[in-house]
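Regression test case RT-17, inverse folding.

Input:
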């Protein structure tokens, strides 16, 4: 029986496990589960589809956690500006912003490597189901071949969280998107992150990011709601994006090295955020759980940035667990109020980015561009 079982060993789950391992006051027995073999070389079929950019907010969290980025994780070029292309209004602007450009899979493995051996790591194991049994959680791995039990469950399993879908299915959910990325060979250097707006492709946004001699072209396409498309239509929209981007940037995007996909969730209301839950048991007792980062719905609704929230929620939960398991989920939920406010404010500014007419006025004004750096740039 584990005191705390963490599902997902991305930045949120690994950082929480690392922090818990450093605290000798509570002596928790902690388990960590992830479907990837993070203790082995990268499996190309298990890579996380991610742009791999650490925003200034994420960099602040790394500083707060006293974490450094090893040089072998970084990718060239490092990025100091955002190139915003608005195909709807035929406009373009540059904004100053500094990102760490990194290899996401190496970053995950770096954080995982910081977890001491006394934390039980179940890697290469797939969570197949989650149950409430008497006074504890029961997590089935690999179609029930292995069963783990825990007093406190932590969901750090990303935007398509099985834990949230299973345990909290009745609550409001963020809008769901699928991120499609293709990696193309490139000979030139594009030392900027390109954000692309085109309402014929998506009501969210698209992007390019260079990693060494490869260029990522990606887009986020809606999976539900009025703008949702069929799988065939999504492929057609990506092809349209590829043609437009190649022509506009003057680069060849013909034969990709690889294609990736991942779910993205966009919280358009703070009601869609869910950081903790306390279940009433038939025996009269309570059973607690907490959700971290993307599993909680905590990603930027304007840019889909999630690293900063993943690290922040893992720190907040650790600080709550330091005071004991009893009511830890309630303390944690209260400590996340600043994230609710942050996402609420980002939703307020969202029309300036995602309303074609308002974006037209903002970009034409030049506010926030490299001509005027006193205003907060458009992209996080």
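Golden output:
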């Amino acid at each position: 029986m584990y005191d705390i079982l963490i599902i997902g060993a991305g930045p949120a789950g690994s950082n929480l496990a690392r922090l818990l391992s450093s605290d000798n006051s509570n002596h928790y027995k902690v388990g960590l589960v992830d479907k990837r073999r993070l203790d082995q070389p990268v499996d190309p079929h298990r890579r996380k589809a991610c742009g791999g950019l650490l925003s200034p907010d994420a960099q602040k969290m790394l500083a707060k956690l006293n974490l450094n980025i090893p040089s072998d994780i970084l990718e060239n070029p490092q990025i100091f500006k955002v190139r915003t292309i608005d195909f709807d209004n035929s406009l373009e602007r540059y904004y100053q912003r500094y990102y760490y450009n990194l290899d996401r899979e190496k970053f995950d493995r770096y954080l995982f490597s910081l977890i001491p051996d006394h934390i039980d790591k179940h890697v290469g194991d797939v969570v197949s189901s989650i149950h409430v049994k008497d006074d504890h959680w029961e997590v089935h791995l690999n179609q029930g071949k292995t069963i783990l039990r825990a007093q406190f469950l932590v969901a750090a399993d990303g935007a398509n969280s099985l834990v949230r879908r299973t345990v909290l299915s009745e609550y409001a959910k963020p809008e769901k998107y699928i991120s499609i990325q293709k990696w193309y060979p490139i000979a030139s250097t594009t030392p900027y992150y390109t954000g692309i707006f085109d309402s014929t492709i998506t009501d969210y946004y698209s992007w390019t990011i260079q990693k060494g001699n490869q260029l990522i072209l990606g887009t986020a396409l809606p999976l539900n709601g009025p703008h949702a498309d069929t799988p065939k239509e999504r492929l057609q929209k990506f092809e349209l994006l590829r043609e437009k981007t190649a022509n506009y940037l003057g680069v060849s995007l013909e034969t990709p090295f690889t294609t990736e996909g991942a779910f993205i969730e966009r919280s358009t209301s703070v009601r869609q955020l869910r950081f903790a839950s306390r279940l009433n048991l038939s025996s009269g007792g309570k059973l607690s759980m907490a959700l971290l980062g993307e599993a909680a719905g905590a990603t930027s609704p304007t840019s889909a940035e999630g690293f900063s929230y993943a690290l922040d929620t893992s720190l907040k939960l650790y600080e709550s667990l330091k005071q004991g398991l009893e009511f830890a989920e309630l303390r944690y939920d209260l400590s996340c109020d600043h994230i609710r406010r942050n996402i609420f404010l980002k939703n307020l500014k969202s029309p300036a980015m995602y309303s074609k007419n308002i974006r037209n006025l903002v970009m034409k004004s030049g506010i926030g561009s490299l001509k005027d750096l006193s205003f907060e740039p458009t992209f996080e």
